[in-house]
Amino acid sequence: MEKKLVKGAVYSFVLSFLLGLLVFPDTDTVHTGSVVETRIILMREYLFEVIRFSIKMMFGTIVVIWLFHMFKFEKSEALQFISGFVKSFVIVFALIILVVVLFSIWW
């Protein structure tokens, strides 16, 4: 269990860091009336934003892995139904959170 959590945390941190580098813009555009101002974000500020995103995704992955482990049942049909329901809820919830995060980044 612990090995899966650590591997999931490390892999999700690295992948979300690389995804954050691709998704997060390094410029900030401000529209004031008819004037458009573009500001280059400082490297330190940009890296903190990407690392913050990576840490959030890492903790989300740890929670999902833990939930999958906790609701892993074998015998009873009712327990399999409940575990399937919880798994599908977690997957859909994670997808919704991912879409909201991506839209909040781009808008």
Q: In short, what is this structure?
A:
The chain is built from three helices and two strands, in the order αββαα.
Question: Mind explaining what this structure looks like?
Answer:
With 107 residues, the protein is mainly alpha-helical. The chain contains three helices and two strands, in the order H-E-E-H-H. The chain has helices spanning 2-23, 43-70, 77-106; strands spanning 27-32, 35-40. It has a two-stranded antiparallel sheet. The protein is elongated and about 65 Å long.
Per DSSP E runs of 2 or more residues, the count of β-strands stands at 2
Major sheet strand order:
1-2
Rg over alpha carbons: 19 Å
Number of domains: 1
Strand content: 5-15%
Separate helix tally:
3
Along the chain, the helix and strand elements come as HEEHH
Mean pLDDT: 84
Shape: elongated
Major sheet characteristics: 2 strands, antiparallel
Q: Helical content, roughly?
A: over 70%
Please identify the structural class as seen in this structure: mainly alpha
